[in-house]
Amino acid sequence: MGTWPRGISAAVWLLGLCLLLTACKGNEESAVMPSNESGQASSDVEKPVALEAVVPEGTLDNPVGMVSEYGVTAALRNKGFVIEQPGQVVMLDLANPSTEPQVVLDIRDRVYSDGNEQGLLGLAFHPKKPGVAYVNYTTKTHTVIARFVMKDPGNPEIFDPASEVKLLTYEQPFSNHKGGQLAFGPDGYLYIAAGDGGSGGDPHGNGQNKQSLLGKVLRIDVNTGVNGKHYSIPADNPFAGGSGAPEIYAFGLRNPWRFSFDTVTGKLWAADVGQDRLEEINLIENGGNYGWNVMEGNLCFKPKEGCKKEGLIEPIFTYGRDQGVSITGGFVYRGKALPELIGWYVYADYAMGTIWALRQSEDGSVENKVLLESDHLITSFGVDADGELYICSQKGSLLRLS
């Protein structure tokens, strides 16, 4: 994923796309089908899908995510919280989108966003504690996972920048591949996407290094702190016993740009941005090794041929440079407005604007369909309290799948 300021010209966009392709290599309208009660998507008649603007282009400043508080606070049920990469979180009234967006957290004074893939990248609300939020942001040299609390119990949506508590920091050797996603899983733990640290080809070997937090999905318990830390390690984390960094949940990832949990099955879906050949979608398992930088997708990367694939989990789906250059992970749709999509994983390509829906059958086979070809730089997906899907466009708009 890369970002550029809103209001970009066509020339700047093309230059940015060239830079994105270079970063990937070196330095780095149809619909689908309804589900049954098991959560599995089932075949039916195709119907068209469109994008409906919630707020127009230029309203938001480099939006890279939209999350809901998911009804923890009743008054915020219809609110959408948009992550702006320079360092703000703004609240939108999804039921009355013409209402002026409200800044609910401003930490631009500590966020470094000059790099194309740096900035405020993730936001997650505590699922049981109103007025408690966690963010993922970069300084010039580190990633910071921090907690903020509300300024006033009467206004649980407004967070106090001075309330910051840093839970976890880790050094970043280069300016790209930060990951950045935060989300609470059905187990109540906080999951964190960490890219391999950047450059190209993972020169430090972080993806396969069990002592490094880079190139991983991390998992921590933010409800209890031990040994002077503001978090603890879930007992079933694969390296909780000390053979690797205990925060690691899964490893061997390059730049996981957006993951999500299926609210019905609990499965963890993650999109991983490729180097120069394949973009991939993975189902993340506890202790899983997803291959980078031994493999890129299901192909050998280092070495180019004859790599040892034993013990590596291959992606459930990949696509090549003929279809896109930078995958943006989405969500398994569980809303009501688009019954044809229930049970399908909806995702996109950032640079090409293509939106797909994918489903995996019980036998492991995968079906993938183009939903629509958009003209948006799709940085992220979001979901509201009712399970409806939204898309963040880098041009400064928020759109709803309709």
Automatic annotation (TrEMBL):
Q: Which residues form the Glucose/Sorbosone dehydrogenase domain?
A: 77-399
Which Pfam families does the annotation name? GSDH (PF07995)
Tell me which PANTHER family the record gives.
ALDOSE SUGAR DEHYDROGENASE YLII, HEDGEHOG-INTERACTING PROTEIN
Q: What is this protein called?
A: PQQ-dependent sugar dehydrogenase
